[in-house]
Amino acid sequence: MSDAVTDYDHLLRSNLNRVFNERDPAKREAAIAELFVETPVMFEPTDIVQGRDAISQVAGQLLQKFGADFAFVPIATAVGHHGLARLAWQAGPRGGPVAVTGADVAEIVDGRIARLWVLLDPPT
């Protein structure tokens, strides 16, 4: 898919909302199947996660660890070109203080996320 038809903002916001904010495992897995290539890789600060199932498990564990009110919220429009995109976000309890900020950087292949880097900003 060319840049002219890839909506980087929609793709990365969908990942944030439908994968990393989704508490229902079946809905999260369906979103991952739609948004990610068959064998994606996610690079976290402390781990490399391979495969759709593993990405779903990581998202579910994060949501369980931080509680029912925890959410990731985009703070800017995603930008990208030539198969690379970035979306800045913040996370914390809904309506509460921001606990962490960062960005997702993704390699996009044929309109889907092939590799995803989760970059955390240093604490302030």
TrEMBL record:
From the record, give the transmembrane residue ranges: none
Gene3D superfamilies in UniProt: 3.10.450.50
Q: Which InterPro entries match?
A: NTF2-like_dom_sf, SnoaL-like
Question: Where does the SnoaL-like domain start and stop, copy by copy?
Answer: 18-115
Entries under SUPFAM superfamilies matching the protein: NTF2-like
Q: What is this protein called?
A: SnoaL-like domain-containing protein
Q: Which residues form a coiled coil?
A: none
